[in-house]
Amino acid sequence: MSDITVRPLGEDDWEDYRSVRLAALRESPEAFVATVEEEESYDEDFWRERMQRSARLVAERDGVAVGVVSVGTAKASDGSAGELFGLWVRPEARGSGVATHLVKDGASLAAERGHSHLVYWVGTENGRAVAFASGMGFRPTDYRRPMGVVSEEDGEEEIAMLLPLGVDTGPQLRL
Ligand SMILES: CC(C)(COP(=O)(O)OP(=O)(O)OC[C@H]1O[C@@H](n2cnc3c(N)ncnc32)[C@H](O)[C@@H]1OP(=O)(O)O)[C@@H](O)C(=O)NCCC(=O)NCCS
Questions:
Q1: How far is ligand 1, taken at its centre, from the CA of residue 94, in Å?
Q2: 132 lines ligand 1 (CB under 6 A)
Q3: Closest CA relative to residue 26, chosen from 102, 70, 88
Q4: Contact 74, 82 (CB under 8 A)
Q5: Cα-to-centroid distance, 43 and ligand 1 (Å)
Q6: Which of 32, 71, 82, 146 makes the best surface tag, with the fewest CB within 10 Å?
Q7: What is the block-wise mean pLDDT of the chain (175 residues), using blocks of 10 residues?
Q8: 4-164: which CATH number, 3.40.630.30, 3.30.450.20, 3.40.50.300, 3.40.50.2000?
């Protein structure tokens, strides 16, 4: 099997990001709060602005996008925690190390940006994603929030999982 490369996307790569993001929403609607119908309607300005808001990493094999992840700053923290989100791997590429490459590169990027921890919100019923994150060293926390895919009343929850990134400076986490 050929090598996987992970490429950080710049603003001008917005169409590459749009393409893999829409594929993720189309294939795994239960895993994401956003919908493909909603995001298909966004214009170029929106996607360009989105590229600047967080880092977007795409995994490629033979020049074909096989996975994606985003890395930003955790909204409700004091800035010391980075946030990993929007993780997706094409079904035919799962179990082959693509997600590991994406998360390792995402964690390195967050560490380079000075974050001490990486937060990852994941659906408590998304067994594969929780198992994957645990295998990467993310620890479960007591933080939960409604998933909000169908409605706030559907009872589905996300759990915040936390990965220390090297030197622990004791973040004031307020999620
Ligand atoms: C989550 C995702 C990125 C993980 O990538 P992956 O290539 O499937 O991950 P891996 O196969 O390397 O690892 C999954 C782990 O869960 C285990 N696993 C596989 N299927 C599982 C299942 N149905 N339930 C629980 N665990 C499962 C694997 O054995 C592996 O554990 P191991 O490393 O101890 O062997 C991928 O499954 C995906 O894109 N899912 C759809 C989108 C999604 O849910 N994204 C997360 C949104 S928060």
A1: 7
A2: yes
A3: 88
A4: yes
A5: 32
A6: 146
A7: 91 98 97 95 98 98 97 85 97 97 98 95 96 98 82 77 76 50
A8: 3.40.630.30
pLDDT digits (tens, 9 = 90+) for 134-171: 999 999 999 999 986 545 556 789 999 999 998 544 44
Residue 98: CB within 6 Å of ligand 1?
yes
Alpha-carbon gap, residue 5 to 61, rounded angstroms: 7
pTM for the predicted model, two decimal places: 0.91
Non-local (6+) Cβ contacts of 22 within 8 A are 36, 39, 40
Domain assignments of the chain as residue spans, ordered by start: 4-164
Q: Whose CA is nearest to atom 10 of ligand 1?
A: 95
